[in-house]
Amino acid sequence: MNAAIQQLRAEIIAPVWQLSPQRIIRLRSAFATLSDFFAHRTHALALLKMATSVVDHLEHHDNQSNAVDFLKEAMAHIVSLYEDDEQDPHREKETASRAYKRFLRLNISLIKGSPQSPNPGQTASELLDKLETLSKETSHLPHLLEQAGPLSPEDIQRASALLGKISAAINIVWAHLPSPPQ
User: Residue 108 and residue 67: Cα distance in Å, rounded?
Assistant: First the structure.
């Protein structure tokens, strides 16, 4: 546990922020270790999930200064929550809510592995399993968004566009389902 915290501290103060494959592996390892530690703390887990999503994003995209800044801030919050002698659920909730508002502005998916075309060898059953997994992984998001407070007009537009895309995808899946046997 201490090694994971030391890793985050080192990354926070690192002057040059190019994510090498080794650094990504170390960050993911630290996040996984801390996920076990924070297993019973929803808001701390939300911070870890956002940080992991940013690392995943930065692995495939150029280092974006706003994403790197968010990642460093999230890691600092995680270290702080770990080091606090006394848990303060209200403070954790406020911290996670503020971070989530900033995370929304980054426009990075919380879902690991953004939507892609299916592998040619994937069966319909495997695709449905993937859809069920995505549903489970995102089930906490409405509650977290509710706690984040009111959305800006830009965030409302983005949410509306996302809901439209999700609705269209669901309609496509629905259209391809066979009629139930009679």
Answer: 9
Give the chain's mean pLDDT: 79
Instruction: Report the alpha-carbon distance of residue 146 to residue 16 in Å, rounded.
Output: 36
The rounded distance, in Å, linking the Cα atoms of 182 and 169 is 27
Block residue for tokens 């494959």:
21
- Say which residues have a Cβ less than 8 Å from residue 166's Cβ, sequence separation at least 6: none
Is 102 in a helix, a strand, or coil? Answer: helix
- In this prediction, residue 159 carries a pLDDT of 72
CA angle 124/126/131 to nearest 5° reads 95
Q: How far apart, in whole angstroms, are the C-alpha atoms of residue 47 and residue 75?
A: 8
109: closest CA among 69, 129, 131, 137? 137
Q: What is the dihedral of CA 35, 83, 2, 28, to 10 degrees?
A: 30
> What is the pTM for the complete model shown?
0.61
